[in-house]
Design goal:
Strand content: under 5%
Helix content: over 70%
Number of strands: 0
Shape: rod-shaped
Largest sheet: none
Radius of gyration: 22 Å
Order of helices and strands: HHHH
Number of helices: 4
Length: 89
């Protein structure tokens, strides 16, 4: 799975919508059990939003990875320059 944070965020969105629908059904007086299930879905969706949001944007993009590989293969000068660039704050 290449884009896991996006999948986790999508799962959070689906769970949020399902929880909201269940809570609306509970407010119409359909069943008391729907409130507990809806709140559980909303809590799980918040957790998945937190996990997906914390992981998104952490990795380097493919263009940056290719640049670093090209520098590394270019020789000792490219490796030293890459090392100095990665130590930068």
């Amino acid at each position: 799975m290449k884009n896991t944070p996006a999948l986790v965020l999508a799962l959070g969105g689906v769970l949020f919508l399902a929880g909201a629908v269940l809570l609306f059904l509970w407010m119409e007086g359909r069943a008391e059990r729907l409130m507990a299930i809806g709140l559980t879905f909303l809590c799980v969706s918040v957790l998945s939003f937190a996990v997906g949001g914390s992981r998104i944007g952490k990795g380097k993009d493919s263009l940056e990875k290719r640049r670093e590989q090209r520098l590394w293969r270019s020789g000792p000068l490219g490796r030293s320059w890459l090392g100095r660039r990665n130590k930068r704050p």
